[in-house]
Amino acid sequence: MIPRRRVLLSTLKLFDLCTVVVCFGATAAAVAREGAGVKEFLAIRIGIGNLLLFGGFLVIWHVVFAAFGFYQSKRLTSCWSESSKILQATAVGSAGIYLLSVSLEISMVQGLFLPVFFASMAAITVACRLVLRWVLGAVRRRGRNLRHVLIVGTNSRAIAFARKLEVTPELGFRLIGFVDSREWDMAGEFERSGYQLLGDMRELPELLRRQVVDEVMVFLPLKSFYELNSRIVKQCEEQGIRVTLPSSLFELKNARVLAEAVDDEEPAFTMATGAIEGAPAAAKRAIDLVVAAALLVALAPLFLAVALLVKATSPGPVFFTQERIGLSKRRFRMLKFRTMVVDAERRQRELEHLNEANGPVFKIRKDPRITSVGAVLRNTSIDELPQLLNVLKGDLSLVGPRPLPVRDYEGFERDWHRRRFSVRPGITCLWQIGGRSDVSFERWMELDMQYIDTWSLWLDLKILCKTIPAVLRGAGAA
Length: 478
Description:
Blueprint: H1 2-31, H2 36-46, H3 48-67, H4 79-103, H5 113-141, E1 147-152, H6 156-167, E2 173-179, H7 189-193, E3 197-199, H8 204-210, E4 215-218, H9 226-238, E5 242-246, E6 268-271, H10 278-298, H11 300-313, E7 319-325, E8 331-337, H12 344-351, H13 372-380, H14 387-393, E9 397-399, E10 404-405, H15 406-409, E11 426-428, H16 430-433, H17 441-453, H18 457-473
Parallel strand pairs: 1-2, 1-4, 2-3, 4-5, 9-11
Antiparallel strand pairs: 5-6, 7-8, 7-10
Helix pairs in contact: 1-5, 1-10, 3-4, 4-5, 10-14
């Protein structure tokens, strides 16, 4: 899953910086001259100015590693290529230390310091990446941490790439299939390959709507299919789906790798419209886990009381589960306290003509299926509290676009609405604090796009703070 990958990359950044600190300190202590050298080392550690200077050096080191692409996905890059880049980046960083020490006359960084620091830093970083590759490969071979890929194009390069995914399950890609014009396979190469064509170019938007797709990889020639390539990128952008185009399509032989590579020889450009990534995404997930766990413990007595009320006033289970559409259109079972009669979903078809909401959603203010206790639970949003368990599981975040039922999703008519699925859905959102059912469907979708495009941890905090008074007012509850 992409969010877990972002957490992993953020952890790698922190690990690399900690490694720099440890290696620098250990090297300085190991090669320090007796007496004055040790005193100089200790003085550098406690000097405020030098601490600030060292902090600046850490920033520069991070920039160097980021420039070499260490915090981008490396699924398709060989370990030898990554190790070579680590040596190059460490050499550049070490050279920076040397230039800094010369310009600021830091006598400690001399003699054996640079070779020892370089060797220790490179060895630890390479070892870490190799261990990480082995662990991730083992996880992916067991069907976890997979990225669902749709290939556009049926030429020899597309087929070769698909073969590579098949024989290297440790890369963590699950091939959904191919999309191309049905008459394109003039030589019959694709037909002989044994792969199945999911549809032609006209069917691509519908496939993106219906399938779980994390990434689209395009292998169409750029010059002869420029307009088509542009349309594919636009269709993916609308729905918040990553799209990767090998750089050879642009005839940029020496293109700098901006994102992920199709293989070691071919850099690629990856475009993504999801706004939540990097260290802030890791912080968001950490906040989700801590707050959800704390609330579940604190609200345990309330959970028990509500469960007894639901059970005593209406036959059926305490909890209601419903299939909802989540991140990248993955389906999950969302948990709520039951507020309706047991056969509510079956009876919904009989009530469609009473729907008061515009757009594909279904809302009735005085829904006859709601129980007496259920009405109170809905007005106070207490029925939503079990979703904290979905937060712990990773299906939901505390803040994010509300997850929609499958029935509502299937009524979507505009692809830009589907970009809401490029981020993890949440328990509360801008729609929740803006009036809920009083807000039109189109405005609801606009608020979701606003959340994605302007996301920050501060925005999450403001939404959480505003959720409590919005719930107490009961505005738009239905």
